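Give me structure tokens for this 463-residue protein.
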Amino acid sequence: MAVSETPKRFPDRDEIARVRAEAETIEPGAEGPEPRRLAGRVMARRDMGKLVFLDLVDRSGRIQLLCPAARTGEVDVHLGDVVGVSGKPTKSRRGEPSLIVDELLLLSRNRSPLPDTFHGLTDIEQRYRKRHLDLLMNEEVRSDFMLRARIVSAIRRYLDSEGFVEVETPILQPRYGGAFAEPFVTHHNVLDQDLYLRIATELYLKRLIVGGLEKVYELGKDFRNEGVTYKNNPEFTMLEWYEAYADYQDTMRRMENLIEFVSLEALGTTKVTFKGHEVDVKAPWQRMRLIDELAAFDLWTTDYDDLKQRLEDRGIDVSRDKTWSQLVDKAVTAYIEPRLIVPTILYDYPIELSPFARITDGDPRIVERFEYYVGGMELGNAFSELNDAEEQASRFAMQAEEGAGGNVEAEQGDPDYVEALSYGMPPTGGIGLGIDRLTMVLAGKDSIRDVILFPAQRERHNP
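Here you go.
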């Protein structure tokens, strides 16, 4: 067995970005007064007689290393090696911020050829399959995922500061619910029962509202057995929060404030470019009533056959849409969503589409629900939560009829949740926010695969 002779640690290192900033202040040829220690990956090498130039990269940035043979001896370093160095900040004669090296240690030898170090890793398929190389070669990709981390941290800071409690609920569930989706199914051998990977955290979080926690949120993975598109991945990250004594109007305002806060914290601005459009996520957002928008396209009718005919007359394929609610969803997707470029709240939905929302005061056919959009893409969904156990049981029965009519994504019903509601749940506002999609908007990325470190990929079978 080969014994590694490389060091097991390299403590007390500085970030390259900080040392580079220090070197910016130094005159060419001069050296800083204090030694610095850096570690990272060698991404370029240039030999100039007894002086070797290396480009060293860590997650904070890149800096040039000056390695005079008189100080370092022979430089036995290859492209891609991980090294640790100590030396002093300086500037080259050409004014490049640098570190003049006194000691260089090999920490890990690269034993595979790197992609072209000038162009980086450009093959899209390879970038997703070999994310380690993508991150290693492309500084922009590293920056995107550092941005994602700042977004998640800012979300937690906002909600924590507003008195919310972060909780964890089961991923493996005996029943799935809280969204319209097909689940992944697995089997517990000891219990000898099928379990489902959760499609949403909603029903467990609302049990906690019944239990008196009042303001709760969860940031976690959900799983839906659906296709991979520019905005869908079968495994994705969701934020859900529930706030007692609030309604959907309160939740609209909190959502706007949260996204504005997160954008300022993560980017320093609320103005972003997404899918070719410059948008401003600063509160307040545009508000539009769903039924009014459908009526503007002559697509508001509660008759299944009538709506189906109107869509078919416009060339929309509705062959797989077996229920009226599916047709409404198709109409919204085809005609409403693409127009919602500026940040927009689309509110007040038909009751058939919303099994967990309370009815509006003026019309029992319409419920207090909203979805919100940027760049024509939905970011999330929210309700004034239904808190009457008998009405919830009735809604589940309505969804059972929807499923019998051919909608395989209809809610399955959850008698344990209904039983929890029977103890009384305060009026509550609840919301879901897709973290991957929010990151797409703030990072200006058109594909969800660019903001998920390891997106779903079809397995490749080597011959």
